[in-house]
């Protein structure tokens, strides 16, 4: 399956719906991007209690690869997600 999308000014694009449906991607899924020659491979990463325990180093490597602004946005996003699950209120941008 080959589909095309334009890259926006901010470096954003949309994963086409047929691909999202085929891979059963959902909002909030963690995706990894790997550069292989002249192609980018996108994979959904599994995040669960056992996965986190088994792959803490992978998550630390992922976090460390982000710049400070990206790290802050990720922490803010995750804190808001936790607050919403607990029924609290989050004041961060998401």
Tell me what you see in this structure.
The protein has 94 residues and is an alpha+beta fold. Strands 1-2 form a two-stranded antiparallel sheet.
Characterize this entry briefly.
The chain is of the alpha+beta class. The chain has four helices and two strands.
Q: What letter string, H or E per element, gives the SSE order?
A: HEEHHH
Which architecture of the largest domain per CATH?
Ribbon
Question: What's the helix count?
Answer: 4
Q: Uncertain spans, ≥5 residues at pLDDT below 50? A: none
Instruction: Please indicate the percent range of residues in DSSP E strands (runs of 2 or more).
Output: 5-15%
Largest pleated sheet: 2 strands, antiparallel
Q: Over the alpha carbons, how many angstroms does the gyration radius reach?
A: 16 Å
- In CATH, the topology of the largest domain is named Pemi-like Protein 1, Chain: D
Which strands sit side by side, in order, in the main sheet? Answer: 1-2
List how many beta strands DSSP finds.
2
In which range does the helix fraction lie? Answer: 40-55%
């Amino acid at each position: 399956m080959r589909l095309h999308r334009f890259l926006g000014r901010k470096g954003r694009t949309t994963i086409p719906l047929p691909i999202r449906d085929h891979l059963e991607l959902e909002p909030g899924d963690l995706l990894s991007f790997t550069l292989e020659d002249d192609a980018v491979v996108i994979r959904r990463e599994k995040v669960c209690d056992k996965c986190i325990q088994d792959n803490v180093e992978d998550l630390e490597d992922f976090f460390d690869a982000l710049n400070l602004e990206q790290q802050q946005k990720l922490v803010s996003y995750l804190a808001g997600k936790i607050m919403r699950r607990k029924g609290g209120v989050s004041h961060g941008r998401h």
